Amino acid sequence: MPRMRFRPRATPGYADRAHAGRALARHLEGVQLSGPVVFGLARGGVPVAAEVARGLGAPLRVCVARKIGAPGQPELALGAVTAHGPAGYDDRLVRSFGLGDAELAELTERERNEARQREARYTRGPAPELGGRDVVLVDDGLATGATARAAIGMLREHAPRRVVLAVPVGSPDSVRALELVADVVVCVLQPVDFAAVGQWYGEFGATTDAEIDGILDELGGAAEQD
Length: 226
Hints:
By secondary structure, the chain is an alpha/beta fold. Helices cover 36% and strands 22% of the residues. The strands form two sheets. It has a six-stranded parallel beta sheet with strand order 1-9-8-7-2-3, with helices on both faces.
């Protein structure tokens, strides 16, 4: 199936993640979706995904992808990994740190274990069947794209009809790179002066587990409509 590019007209920044989610939901109305299931990338993507799920009338689940931080520089992503599925790496960065296979495997497994624990914590009700359906993966923004790439790889293992990556704002370079990985990429804002996701939000505090619990208690265990 040919890949699609969907670039809505740019709008101003967002008051908070809920505002961004509502704007994103409106733009997704232009994508023909078949039985969509919405996945929010934990943690910050979940409040955005909640508004998307409401707008689409779709079930909401949480997807956990963990950045594999470089030794001594945990904020620098060597790659990312999910609870299940293959890890993805930036081979250039891995080589620059001179990491051997055993050390890289140890870093990866540590983050995979954390992803498994968080995934179990955020699970509500039975997992929906994804085969033949459109999956909408939502985050609060796209910087390097490492965690989104890993999450897409995991979701593809469930044989969805398409994987749609949807974000309110993103680096133009990362958006182009992810267009080669997802079937559809919806990114509302692609500012040429992008430096960080948070600069496009008025309120960008850390999303807490308690906040996610409240969202999932409302939406995550809801039965799907026929």
